[in-house]
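seq as requested:
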Amino acid sequence: DWFFQMVFVATTASIVSGALAERILIWPFFAFIVVLTAILYPISGSWQWGGGWLSEMGFSDFAGSTTVHSVGGWAALVGALILGARNGKFSKDGTTNVMPGSSIPMATLGVWILWLGWFGFNGASQLALGTYGDANAVATIFANTCMAAAGGVIAPMILSRLMDGKTDIGATLNGAIAGLVSITAEPLTPTIGEAIIIGGAGGIICMFGMKLLDKLKIDDVVGAIPAHLFAGIWGTLIVPFTNPDTSYGIQIIGILAFGVFTVIGSTIVWMLLKSTVGIRATVEDE
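struct tokens:
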């Protein structure tokens, strides 16, 4: 179990770092991650894993669309609001300036690495491989995980082409992550077709989420908030679509519980850091 917890901790940390890159001071960032992963995440995680109150209510989140990804997304969103945007991201006239990454091939390679790692993230969450039933479940999880990611790629690729006349590579790459996040809440019960739909919808939600953040003047460097928070909410909410043992009402309660707790806790920590040691890099360093 400790190994999986370390993987989940690393995931929440990477979500925050991706959203706040290029203007956050490194040591305050480290301090926030320590509090997030050593205090906030274990408290909320225990509500679902380990027989907590949400688990007793019937909340379902197989490998962490909300328990892991939304927690990181909420923390990143609060941090982005308190930290502010990068210099030059938004003009005085309200327009958004595109600040692309320095290497699309490297970004693509990173997505492929995450895609591969997700087989362990979801598949190993079955936590057993000693029977035919467990082995068959892991194989199903692998297939659905891959197909959801594929759906997350294809949907924004086609939609951005239709809307803008060209394929948005950033939205396509983030669509893969969003598809993976979307299926993480329930990768066992969907059919292959349902997994593609769930992942594809997650990719589209992520694409429009990136546009929404720009409109709201919230600077998320790599699109981590739409890919993990928005898609995580979607993936958790849609679980009853394929799993009849769950209910939409309980899923919503779980989503709100994790969101409220993480937002309040993250706000307190970010504000304490901002008012004491500071969290923003200098203009020169940035």
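The mean pLDDT is 95.
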